[in-house]
Amino acid sequence: ENPQSSLRKWRKLGGEDLDPQTLRVKIQDLEERLNDKKESLLEKELILEEVTALSDKLRQQAVDGRQGTMELSQKVNVFQSRIKDVTRKMMATVSELSMHQATAHKLQQERDEISDKAI
């Protein structure tokens, strides 16, 4: 490359270079900012880990709760079925009792009539 060539491949920029002490101060400032950002990143990563662990725990509790709810629902269905069966049997027994009471009442009336005729 020839800087003297007719093609302008480079140009001189305005401004001035800072002295080494100023550059060291800027570098130190940038390193401090970088360290602060790294520390902030580590804190955020720790928070993320905690939140992730808690959300996983809650998700597992929700799954367990759904399983428990399903089991309870099945038990409720079984008990409702038993209640229906027992209610049906009880109604049949009450009907039988009513028939026996009617028969007993009729027989009592017949007995009373026969006893009145015998006297």
From TrEMBL:
Q: Would you tell me the Gene Ontology cellular component terms?
A: cytoskeleton
Top-rank lineage group of the source organism: Eukaryota
Keywords attached to this Swiss-Prot or TrEMBL record, sorted alphabetically, are:
Coiled coil
Give the protein's recorded name: Uncharacterized protein
Question: What organism is this sequence from?
Answer: Strombidinopsis acuminata
Provide the organism lineage as a comma list.
Eukaryota, Sar, Alveolata, Ciliophora, Intramacronucleata
